[in-house]
Amino acid sequence: MLTFSRDQWLNYRWQRHGLGGELDDDRLDDLLALGVQDGRQAGAALSLRQRAASAVLSPRQPPTGDAAREWIGPDGPFVSLWTVRGAPHVHRVTHLDFIRDALAPDPADEGGAGYVAAVDEVATALRATVRGATSKADASSAVAGQVSGSLVAWCDRCQARHVPDGLFRAAGLRAQVVLGPEQRATMLHPKPRQRQRRVAHPRLALLRAYLRVNGPTTRTLFRDWLGGVAATAATWSELADRMVKARVEQKRAELPEELVEEVRTAPRATGVVLVPPNDPYLRQVDRTLLVPDSKRRQEVWRALSGPGALLVDGEVAGTWRYRGSERTLTINAFSDLTPARRRSAERNAGLVAEVSGGGPPRVDWS
User: Which of the chain's termini has less CB crowding within 10 Å, N or C?
Assistant: First the structure.
C-alpha cells in the first residue's frame, strides 16, 4: 500500500484546483465538469476569479473583473443549473449534455425506476413550459397542472400544490433549464443553442475528473459529494483494475495508478486565497483531513450561513465574511500570520469586492 503525507495530498489538490497559478484549459475543464457551486454573493464567479488571479488567461479561461459575473448566464460560456445534490453549479455551456447524462437518475438509486419515470415526466413538462425567461414560481405552477396528481403535493411554506423541490430540480437538470443571473426571483431559461461536446461513458468521465482534481480519495467521499447516489459503486468498480490502494497519513484511500507520481512530486502549495463557502476546495474533500482540528471544522462548515475560508499555502487558515453594504471584509485567522501574508490576504480581499460589484473594501482582522 502506498503512503502519502498530508502535505503531498494538500500540494496536489492545491495545484489541481487551480489555486497554484497554473489553471490551464485541461484543469479548468475538470473543475467545470464537476461544477463550481454557486450561491449568495456570486459564489461561483468568485471561485473562478480567484483561480484566474495568478494564471495566464486564454480565451477559454475565467475572465477578470465584472466580467467574471457576466460570463455566467444563459448567453455566457459558463451556465448555472441544478446539478450535483440539486444545488446550482456552474459548468461550461458545451458540457450540458455530458452533465445531464453523467448525473441522470438510475434505477439502482433510491426511489428506483419509479423515481426515474417521475423525473422524466416533470422534465417533459418543464421543457414545454420554459420556452423563454420564466420565473421558477410560474414554471412550478404550470408544471403542477401538467403532471400526474401523484407527483404534486401541498406545500405549507408556499401555500400551494406543486412538485416537491428536490424532484423539480432533478427534472430541471434533465430538461437542461439554466438559471438566470441572481435576482429576487429565480429565473429559468431554456437550454442555450450551443454545440455540445460529445463525451463517451459520461458517468465514468465524471469520476475520472473527480479523481484528477482531488487525488487520493474514497468511493464513499465520491458518493457523498454526489448526494448518496447508489449507482456510483458500479462506476467506481469500472476503474478497479487501474486503481491502487493508498494511505494519506492514517486514512485509507485509492487513486488511479497514473496519478501516483504527480501526487508524490506536486509543487509545494504557496499563496493566500479567500474562497467562498461552497468552493470546490472545501466541498470535494475529507473534512477531517483538510481541517484536523474539530473546533476549526465547526467554524468553517457551519450548517447555516457558513463563512468563506482563508487559505494559506494549502491550509484552511481562517474564515472571512464580506458585508457589501459596509464595504467591509472581516477575517478571523486561526493563528498569527506574517505581515506579508496579511498583506496578501488584504489584496485578495479586493477580488471579493470586485466580483460582488463593489470598490476596495476595508479589511478588519479579528
Answer: N
